[in-house]
Specification:
Blueprint: H1 2-88, H2 93-109, H3 113-138, E1 150-155, E2 163-177, E3 180-194
Antiparallel strand pairs: 1-2, 2-3
């Protein structure tokens, strides 16, 4: 009987030790898993932002060529209108001077394609591309949600000569562990030099 009591006493202490250690061990494993997931999300966001900036820098020259063509066409159209108005007024010096000033102001008011991209479309364009590239890397789940990726900084080259492409994004991740919940924000910014042809 003494031997059986001894085994029962040891069985009870092993159960007690396991009941204390297993929750701590599981919490530690979940914490390590969360750290790995955060690292994966951070790398995916960094790659998505870098790829987007490189792509925009690579193809920005095409948009600047289109911008130049649109600007030349627009300027030519305004000059044609000014010349026709001048001819109808009998080439009067004062009228021509006023028409020249109106033409200069008119050309300044007409936005070029680069200004339109920078002012209206760059942020939404960057956001869509970064979200798509992020989703390609990590998929779409509650933790790795591409829907929480937002653009925090952006620049699209809009002048002749060299200009930087800037793409900055952030993502909010929810860490949920037993007795612990936290939101972590990761931010990444990529800057690429755009070749815009010189001239």
């Amino acid at each position: 009987m003494a031997i059986i009591r001894k085994f029962r006493t040891e069985d009870g202490s092993i159960t007690l030790e396991a009941a204390l250690i297993i929750p701590i061990l599981l919490t530690f494993i979940l914490f390590l898993t969360s750290l790995v997931k955060i690292s994966i999300a951070e790398l995916a966001l960094k790659e998505a932002v870098s790829d987007t900036a490189q792509t925009v820098a690579h193809y920005s020259y095409l948009s600047l060529v289109a911008e130049k063509k649109i600007q030349d066409t627009t300027d030519g159209f305004v000059d044609d209108l000014k010349n026709k108005a001048g001819e109808s007024l009998g080439n009067n010096e004062i009228a021509n001077e006023l028409l020249d000033q109106i033409a200069v102001e008119g050309k300044a008011l007409i936005p070029t394609s680069g200004q339109l991209i920078n002012d209206h479309a760059a942020k939404s364009l960057y956001e869509k591309v970064v979200k798509d590239k992020y989703e390609e890397k990590v998929g779409n789940s509650d933790f790795f949600s591409p829907g929480t990726v937002t653009i925090i900084d952006h620049n699209y080259p809009n002048t002749r000569g060299d200009s930087d492409v800037v793409v900055g994004a952030e993502n909010v991740l929810n860490i949920v562990l037993p007795f612990f919940e936290k939101q972590i924000t990761i931010k990444k910014v990529a800057v690429e030099r755009a070749w815009s042809g010189g001239e």
